Every structure is written in C-alpha cells, then in structure tokens.
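Quick one: structure for this chain?
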Amino acid sequence: MLLALRVKRRLRSVIGPLLGLSAVAYFAYHTVEGDRGLLAWWHLNRDIRTAEATLGDLQKEHDALDRQTQLLRPDRLDPDMLEARARAMADLGHDDEVIILRTAPTH
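Got it. Here's what it folds into:
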C-alpha cells in the first residue's frame, strides 16, 4: 500500500511537467514543420526570389523588343531597321554581305 501511494505521488509530480514538455515539443515541431512554419517560409522566399529573377529576365527581353518596335512605328520610322526587317522577312541579302544569324536563347 505504501508503494502504491509513493507511485501515485511520483506520477502526480511528473505528469504536469510531462504535459508541459509535450505541449512545448508539439508547438516547436509545428513552428518548424507546419504549413506556416519556418521551412515553408524559407521555401516560399526561395520561390519568390526565383520568380523575381525570371521577371527581371522577362522585363529585359520585353524592353529589348519594345526598343525594336519603337524603331518600326510609323511616326518615327528608322529606314535602316525597316530595310533590315524587310530583307530578313524576304530572306534576301546583297552579294557582298555577311549574314550572322542569332538564335533565340534557350531557357
């Protein structure tokens, strides 16, 4: 009987800290691994940096295309650009010209 009383007393003194430790472990785990935890935050930041880099590349490409189309607008038509574009579309060139073809970048 005395042994059972001692075991009960020990269990009562251990259960509170054990429950507290379990709650701390539960919240610590979900702080790191949860849907809104640290790992998810790091992955989201990595995805944002990748998307921003892609956006930067696309903006540069857009600006280059915009500069070329500006030269072909009727209000400020560049004769050299028009001739180059017409010859490229017609696949023509002069006999003394060297034609360098640019390939589209592969991503």
